[in-house]
Description:
Blueprint: E1 18-20, E2 24-28, H1 34-40, H2 48-51, H3 58-72, E3 80-86, E4 90-94, E5 97-101, E6 106-115, E7 123-133, H4 142-154, E8 162-167, H5 172-180, E9 184-190, E10 199-206
Helix pairs in contact: 1-3
Amino acid sequence: MENDHACQPITAESVPTVIETARLSLIQMSLNEQDLLFELDQDEAVMRYINGGRKTTMEDIEQRFMPRLRRYHNPLKGYGLWKVIAKAAFVTTESNRVTEERAGQFLGWILVRPMFFFTDNPHLHDIELGWRFKQSTWGKGIATEAAKAVSDLVSNHTEVTSLSAIADEDNTGSINIMKKLGMTFVKKQAHPDVPDNQQVVFYRLSLNK
């Protein structure tokens, strides 16, 4: 079934655990899928705008990433990570290397949580969206398709009035996704989740409710 949640008010009882789009299945990730997180973070290009291109270790995931995820993981609201799975196989060429992604293959994830969640003043009405995807998906609209499906879902929480995202100002791929979601530039400043007080760009979509 295609994503049919875009026009339906969301309650705790009605949040789905699976969202279907034309090419993708999005499934709420459990807290026991560290192997998928590790797999994705082994590509230096994927990590370029996260930490300068350093591959994540399993120790990083277990000791830093997972404790943070557990704090905002809330399946009843759809908060946490949504893993994105290919419905059909596709082939891509990266740097003269051919890569085939099989049907059922893990492609990446979409993050959902209140903006500024790890501060003393989380913005419960402003939901942060984030994403991380394999290189094989880049330029194919897959991240946008997945992010749009999740944004349509969380937009229908009665308390949600806006959606936000942040990115390194040089990460044009991510910024293009934000724009395709209808977000517009708000400001450039440091974000508490970004190391070394690095400034990032903030984009936001205000919902008409």
